[in-house]
Amino acid sequence: MRHAWHLYVIQLDLEQLTLNRAQFIEALHAQNIGTSVHFIPVHLHPTIARLGVTSGGICPRQNASMIASCPLPLFPKMTERDVEDVIAAVRKIISQHRR
Questions:
Q1: Overall pTM surpassing 0.90 (yes/no)
Q2: Going from the N-terminus, what domains does the chain have, and what CATH number goes with each?
Q3: Angle, nearest 10°, between helix axes 21-30 and 80-96?
Q4: Residue 57 carries which DSSP code?
């Protein structure tokens, strides 16, 4: 079986940082590391909302996980240098924004 090399997601400890996930992603972009949020929990999709299901209080663990998750680049042609660049950027951002 071959791996799809699709996602590598980290969980940010937002209580230990002075920035939120969106700001973390912006900081990655400033370091030339492209990433974006690909998935949201099913209960937050517009189709589910139209059914009258609200996000308030539903799936609190999933909501917290989504708020703190940050996908990092991962693709088959990623070089060792690319991996090192991502690691260095994550470490730099965390060290700059640690509480």
A1: no
A2: 8-96 (3.90.1150.10)
A3: 130
A4: T
